[in-house]
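Worked example (supplementary).
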Amino acid sequence: MSSARKSFTVDGDFRMHRAGHLESPTLAYETWGELNAAKDNAILLFSGLSPSAHAASSELDMSPGWWEDMIGSGLPIDTDNYYLICVNSLGSCFGSTGPASIDPQTGERYRLKFPVLTLEDVAEAAFLVVNHLGVKCLHTVIGCSMGGMSGLAYCLRHPDTVRRYVSISSAARALPFSIAVRSLQREMIRSDPKWMKGNYEPGDPPITGQRLARKLGMITYRSAEEWALRFGRERSTDHARIEDQFVAEFSVESYLENRANKFSGAFDPNCYLYLSHASDLFDLAEYGGSLAAGFKRLKLDKTLVVGVRTDILFPIQQQRELAEGFATVCSDTRLAELDCIRGHDSFLVDMDAFRPEICEFFESCCD
Amino acid sequence: MSSARKSFTVDGDFRMHRAGHLESPTLAYETWGELNAAKDNAILLFSGLSPSAHAASSELDMSPGWWEDMIGSGLPIDTDNYYLICVNSLGSCFGSTGPASIDPQTGERYRLKFPVLTLEDVAEAAFLVVNHLGVKCLHTVIGCSMGGMSGLAYCLRHPDTVRRYVSISSAARALPFSIAVRSLQREMIRSDPKWMKGNYEPGDPPITGQRLARKLGMITYRSAEEWALRFGRERSTDHARIEDQFVAEFSVESYLENRANKFSGAFDPNCYLYLSHASDLFDLAEYGGSLAAGFKRLKLDKTLVVGVRTDILFPIQQQRELAEGFATVCSDTRLAELDCIRGHDSFLVDMDAFRPEICEFFESCCD
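After joint prediction of all chains, the assembly is encoded as:
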C-alpha cells in the first residue's frame, strides 16, 4: 500500500523544553485538502498518545485512519474547504523521532538517552511542520485526549498564530488519579524483566508488561456502565479456562485479553513511557502560576470543549474547568457535555455523538 | 503480645461449593462481648478480602483491629450488649486454612492444589464456627465489601438462622468493571516470574506483582476527588527521581509506592488470588435464576445497606439494587447513601460517616 506519510527533517538542533536537544529530528505528518490562496484554511490536529499521523484515509493511503468518520469530503472536518495537518507526535514511533529512533551521535537507538519529553516539545515540533508548510496562522487547532494538552501548549506558546481551539476529552492538566493510572502503567512495563532498563531487543520487547498496561488502559478508557450493559456476567467461551481457574472465566476478561494482545507489539515500549510521562507533566498553571493566569495568555476567537460524562480519565469536571477558563478570555466558547456511555474512548468510537459538535463548530465559523 | 485469636478445627471433611474438599480445615476467629442466656445477641461480622479476624482490640490483644472505631463498649457495635464473632475467611492466611496452609494429605502447602474457593465456602466455614459457639440464630450478620457477599451467601443458605442483615459497601454480585480490575490484579501477580505458577518460596514471594496489584487496588479503593484535594499536582520530595525520570515525580506516586510496599509481603499471594477470584464468582442470581428470585429466598426482619457515592468498585447503583431487592422481602429496609470522599475505603477510614448508621440500626432493633 502506498503511504500518504510525508516527513520533514529539522535543520539543526531541536532544543527540548526541559533540558537537552535532538540533532535534526524528523517529523512525520499527513495532510488532507488544499491550502487556499489566503492560507487561512489550515487546521492542525493533535492525536492522543498512541495514534500515528494517519487520521483518515486518502487517495495515497486508503487504510482507515484513527478519526476516519470525522475527516473527508462532506464530513465535519470538510477537506473540500479545509487543509488539515496531522503530525505524529515527537517521541512517538510512527515516523517521528523518538526513543526508538537512531541517535545520529551514536548510531544506536536513543532508548533512555532520549531527553525528557514534554507536550511543549510535541507542540513545538508541530509548529515547525506548520511553518514548513507555509502556514502563518491556523484557522483551528484540534486536540484529542493527550493531544488536547499538546494543543493547549501550542496555543500558549504561539498565541498569535491560532484563531480557534477545539478540545476533545482533554484537560488543562492531569489529575492525580490519571497520573496514578499512567504511573502504574509505566511501572508495569518497567517491572517486566524483558524491559532491561530500556535496552530490550526490538524483536523481543517487554510484551507482558505492555499487555498489563494496555489492559489497565482499556479499563480506564471505557466505563463501568458500558461493560455492565455489554458483558454483564456473561461467561467466556474460551475453554482453556478449564485447565486453569485463573484464566478468563468472564467475557470481560477475554475481551481485555484479545484487545491487549492486538495492541502490544504495535507500539514501542520506551516511546510509550516517554509520551505517558509527558502527559503527566503538562500543566497550564505553569504559564503564569495559576490556571487563571494560563488561560489569560490565550488569544482565541472561538473555542469548543467536548467531553463525556462517563470519562474517568479526563472527567467532566475537567471539561467544565476548561470551558470556564476559555470563557474568561473568549466570549465565543461552547461546552458540550456528551452522554456517551463508552467513557474516554467515546471520541474514537461514538462518532454519532461527536460529529454534530464538530460540524456545528465549523459551520458557525464566520471569517 | 497475647492473642485473642481462637481456632476451631472441623471434624472431618469440608465439602467445597464448586468441587473438592478440605480435610479438617482450621478456622481462626475472635469474639467480643458475651453470649447472653437466651443466646439471641450474637452478631457475625464478615471482613473484606484482606483483613484478619482481628476486627477490634480486646484485653487479650490490645493492637487496633481493622474496624476498631466501630466495635467496643459504648460503640455502635456495643460489646456490652452484643456478642460479636469475626471469622478469618476460609482461604485467607491469618489462621484459617487456605492455599498457604499445609495439606495434611501431602505434608506440603496446598498452593494451587487448593480447590476453587467461593464465598459460599467462606460463609459455610463461618456457619460451622457459629454453631460451634452454640449460636442457633444470629441477631445480625454484617458484611463489609467482599464480606457483604459472603454474608449474603450465609443468609441465602441458612435463612432461618439470621434475623437481620447489614451490607457495607458491597453488592449482589460483581460488575464486569470490578471483575476486570481484579482479573488484572491477579494477572499482575501471575505474570511475576517469581510467582512460579504458585510455587514461590514463602520467603521469596512475587513481590513486584503484589506491589503492582496493590497499587491498582489503591487506585480503585479511593476516589479521584479525594486525590485531587489531597495531592493536586504536588511534587514528591523523594529526590531519587533525579536519577530516573520515571521514578515518582508526583506526591500521589510516592504515596502509592509507600502504601504498596507496606502491604506487599503481609498477604500470601496465592491466598490473594483465591479470595479475589471468589469475589468475582459470587452471584445472588444463581439462587433461583435471577436477582429477584435470589432476594425472595431471604427471610430477614430488618436490613440496612450502606454505600458511598464515590465508590467505583461497589458503586452506588449496586447499593440501590441491594436495597430495592431487600425491600421486596423485608419492609424494614434502609438505604444510606453516604457522601464520603474516600471511595470504597471509606468504611475503613471515614468512621464518622459510618458510625451513626450502624448505631441507629442497633438502636432501632426491637426484640
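Two points are worth noting when inspecting this output. The first strand of chain B starts at residue 6 and ends at 9. Chain B has two domains: 6-174+283-363, 178-274.
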